[in-house]
Each structure stands twice: as C-alpha cells, then as structure tokens.
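Field: sequence (string)
Field: structure_tokens (string)

Example rows 1 and 2, in order.
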Amino acid sequence: MCNTLFTILKKLNTSDLKDFLDEKAAFYEQPKFIETDPVQIPNLFTQKEDIEISGFLTATISWGNRKSILTNAHKLTNLLDHSPYDFVKNHTENDLEHLQGFVHRTFNSIDLSYFIIALKEIYTNFEDMEGFFQQFSGEKDLQNAIHHFKKEFFKLPHQSRTEKHVSDPHKNSAAKRINMFLRWMIRSPKAGVDLGIWTSLSPAQLSCPLDVHSGNVARKLGLLKRKQNDGKALAELDQKLRALDPKDPVKYDYALFGLGVFEKF
C-alpha cells in the first residue's frame, strides 16, 4: 500500500475505520489462515486437554520464522506421541529423557521438560487450565490471570532461564504469546480458526497478541501512539479495539496481522 493510502486510512473517522477493519478481519479469519499459522497445531486435536496443552506449548515457541515455528511445533507434537494430555499426566523420567535435543531458538529441552512437569502440577491441583484462568480473571481482561498463572507455573524447582518463556503483564510485558493462546482457547470456532473451548471466559476479556506486525499497522492507522510493544502499548491498543467492538475486540488481530504480514502495510 502506498503512502497516500496510509494517510487516507489514518484520517478515517471511527465508523469508517471500523468498517475497514471489520472487512479485513473477516477476510483473514478463514480456515485457509491455519495453513500457515501455528493455530493449526491445537486444531489437530478434539479432546479439550489435548487442545489446551498443544496450544499452550505451540504458543510458547511462536516467535521467529513462521516456517520454523510450524516445523518445531509438529516435531514437539511427535515427541508427545500425539497425545499431549496423556504424556503430561503419565510421563516418567525416561519419557522426559526422550525430549532431549529439542530446541526452538532459546527454548530447549531443559525448558520443555520443566513445562511438562509444571503442566502436570496444574492439572493435578486444578480441574483444567480454563478453571485456573477463570479463577483469576478480571472483569475487563485476563492480564491479572496471566500474572497468577506464571506464579503458579514456576512454583516447582526450575532453572531461572526457563522463566523467560512465560511473560508477566505485571512487569509491563505485552505477553504476546500467551494472549495469542488465550485467543485460540476463548474466541468462537465459528469461522474455523480459533477453537473456543473455554466457555466460562468471554472474548470481551481478551487482549490483542501485540507483536511487531500488529503494532506497526496499529500505529499507521492511528490506533497506537506508544513506540514500544510493551504492556502499556497493549493497554492503549486494547482500549481502542474495545471501542470498535466491546464484545469481540481481538477479532481485529486478524486485520492488523494480515495487513502487516500478507499485505506489507
């Protein structure tokens, strides 16, 4: 898109901007979207716990080259014998040994082994992951629930290096990957992309998975002024997106991401 179009779009009134973003969101939120997106991994499963675990682990490694993300996410699924929940609940020390050698950027088998152990603890102490997030959810968002999830997740002995793979909104992180995971779990599956298996939580509580693509597009459209993609920027963007659609603000993630990645906006 040329600079002239940038200027025109940035000057749209709220109603016209909403119409534009609604159209783009509907265009990209189609089943074909999953062909090149990590959301394809949890879409492989039907059991709730399998979807949760595969989604959480896939979202955790969702940064960097998308082709590499998909390759390693499928590799991870194979390592868990295509039964993530059974692996988490019933793994032995020997099973964890089989995870040795897995690596995606800075996430390695040390981190993965701890994630498996910590997930087992979550499922032992709570009915499921949905129940945990529902317990700590706020009326307007889930950022406090993410904070408490990280605290609970790292209660067991672990290497400090592993903590960087779960972000904390209370430390001004945009928590892109876990917000993306929550989008997968909570938004309606009607369009054939997100899975919508967590019915006790509302799409209205979701926050945009803010990354370099969605952040850059949001700034060009006048939805975001803050330059850093951090927690303060997320709060600013959330406010703008909720004004456009209070019931389902994160549908606009498809518009922002699609414009950035596929249309080079």
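Row 2 begins here:
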Amino acid sequence: MKVIICGASGRMGKEVVSAVLGGYGSAEIAAAVDVALPILDCPSYTDIADVREDADVIIDFSHHSATASLISYATEHKMPLVIATTGQTEEEKEQIKKASEQIPIFHSGNMSIGIALLVSLVKQAVAIFPDADVEITEVHHNQKIDVPSGTALMLAEGAKAAKEGKATFCIGRHENGKRPEGEIGIHSLRMGKVIGEHEVRIDTGSQTITLSHKSHSRALFAEGAITAAAFIKGKKNGLFSVNDMLS
C-alpha cells in the first residue's frame, strides 16, 4: 500500500513515517508533504498540489486548515483520504461530508481503537443510567492547540447519543458553578508532555462509574492511521471512523 503522508515533518507525521519505515502495515511512502520540507529519502513537497506520484491513500496529520486543499487533491485523483487532524470548523466538516460522496474518507477525533472501545463503553453505561451526571476530563501536553480535544468531543457525543440527544455540552463550569440537569461537562488540562489521558465519570447519586484511557506512546495513533488507510483502500466512497473498523 503506497501512502502520501501530509504533515510529515510534524510530531505525528514523524510517527507515521517511522511506523511505515519500520514495516508496519506493509505500507510504503509514495511522497511526503509538509510546509517545512521533509528531509526524507522519498519525493518531498511543501504543497500536496505538486505531488505527481501514484498512491493508494493519503494520510493527513497536518492541520485542519489544510482540509480544503487535501479534499481538492483527493477528489481530483479519486484517492482515499485519512484525516487524522482535529479542530475542524463546521464549514470544514461540511466539506469532508460532501467529499465523502465521491471518495472514501476516514475521519476520527482519535485514531486509537482503544478510544473507540471507550466511547462504546460510555454509550452503554449512560444508556443504562440516562439520568446520571456525566463529567469528562482530558489531559494533554502543554503545546496542544485545540481545546477541548477531539476525543473529548467524541466521548461527549457518545454520552449525548445515549441520553437520546437530551443533553448539552459545557466546557468547564458556569459562573455560578451550578450544572443544569442533563448537561455534560468537559474539562481540559494542558501540562508537561502528556500524550493523552481521558476519563469519564458517570454519577447516579448513589454510585459512580469511572471509565478511562491513557496513551503511552504516539505510535498507537500512527498505527491506527495506517490501519485506517488499509481499511478504506478499495472502498468506493463514504465517511468512516474507528467505530466502523470495530464493527
């Protein structure tokens, strides 16, 4: 499987490059793209529009602002696209959805299968206790840009779905400190070099269920992205996520 890696010089892009060079997923690099020109033994570019090499899938770990150019290139070349960035605007999310009618796109706030399992467990627990209070805490390194994390939003969406949509989100707390009935709280901490920690507390008033996940290495996200690339390779079109791989 030949892949184009976008954001190849970034923190996660380098992890994908390392995983591919290490033989993970029987993948090979067709080209590398980054605004900071990658120094790799393969065709390298600062703009995906300049890539001329044939490839099976694009893996993107650049920045959500590159969404439009990535989609333009992918749809023009009828190439499957794995979008592993987070923080997309509503307009960018709509662009992704529309493009998925023409090509297969894998988009997830977290590429970890363990996180997909956590989301599933949260849905199950909240469905059993729909009136319980739900609080989500996420911890990441102090250089992470988007707040809250895409994973925290995935967990909140899962809890909301289990409450049959009868819930709202709140980042942090209200000024008066009171939590309205049904509101899901999301708390973000930025410290040190934490790769990623997520915890969901579900409190019924008489008992508390705590579900959590800790990432020990960024390699798991790179491996997840390569697995996602193999998953959508050969599909005609559609919008896919980690949950689709689980099922």
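free_text_note (row 2): The two ends are 23 Å apart (CA to CA).
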